[in-house]
Design goal:
The chain is an alpha+beta fold. 63% of the residues lie in helices and 11% in strands. The chain contains 14 helices and eight strands. A hairpin with a 2-residue loop joins strand 4 and strand 5.
Length: 421
Amino acid sequence: MQTSWNDPRAWRRRLLFLRGGLVTALGLLYLVADLQAASPIPTVLALFWLALLWLPSLLFLATRNRPGRVQWLLLWIEVLLDQLLFMALLHQLGGSSNPLAFYLLLPVLIAAMSLPLMASMAQTLVAIAGYGLTLHWHLVPKHDTHLHALTHDMHPDHGLGMWLAFTLVALLLTLLGQLLRQAQQQTRRSHSTALTLALQRERMYQIGATLADRAHELNTPLSTLLLLSEDLASREELPADCREDLTQISVLSRRIAALLRPPGGDNTPVDAPQPLSALCQDLAATLKHLAPSLTVTWEGPFDPLLTNAATWQRVLANLGYNACDAGASKLLIACETSAGSTIIQVSDDGPRQQAPQGKPGESNGMGIGLALVETSLAALGAELDLNFDRRWTQARIILTTPVQHAATARSRPSPTDGDQA
């Protein structure tokens, strides 16, 4: 669903209200001037110009239901028409030295906040060029009118200064409008990423609950099938071919039971030492379902053989969850040795991570995940150092105890091999 910031129809409605305010204000000004017998132009000509300024509103009424892509083009055309028609009115009223000329800054601001950079800059350049043109080429008011004194009893250099001031203000408004537009786009992307992650997690929870229910439902008939097959196979009066079939059924049933069993059974050494590169592969497989767009990259150059692999998996998983929550698209894991210490650096490009005020380099946004990481690392004898930058968030894990290189550990013969030799 489009918000008012990325909906061209909303911006066209804002232009409609702005245009209506301009026409109303100019009509009231002319009425006051006419009551004081100081009208700069005849009444018929004033009504003509007011109707002409309202003309782009007819375009909006005729095309307000067109598709979205056409709406952006129509928005650009309406802003351009507003500027050109108002410049024509300035030409009639004595040029850009008239203070009303600074109304041109409002269409410039609308274009900067709603249109892309190139389209917005085009509108800004049109306003700057039109201001300078009407400053030197305009209809000269009559000498006995107040408008003549307002627009022409001044030094020529004053007009040049007004044009330079208008140019600087127009460029500044364009820059600020574009920055505000980019900030809104970034906010929308962040909200979209958060919504996607929430939906993916909800889907994962549903899948986990469904699988657990299916496993529970399969467990009872599978156990019954195993008991029946073993009981029938124990009977001596069964023919040999039936006994072979029952043995095959028992083998297949045990295979299904093994698949239903969670990984890491009694025979699997979960906490056996594992290389960091292998833990990174497990982390990539874990995060793939939560954030499919997140890429986990192992860079090395040092690949330590880490004991208490389950604890290290918990540390890396929580840092990965934090990267997912921040909407990161890249997660880089590197390791090196320095002055007898092993440094593991986990970096992500999550855009929504911020350090707390007054404590640069620390985070209060990871919540329970940070507490789990710090507690787990304390048990491993390691320290955590968080660094926040505009583009990257770095978690540096400093391990002071000696760590063996995984390739060196694999190349060494085991004690059993040595005894056999």
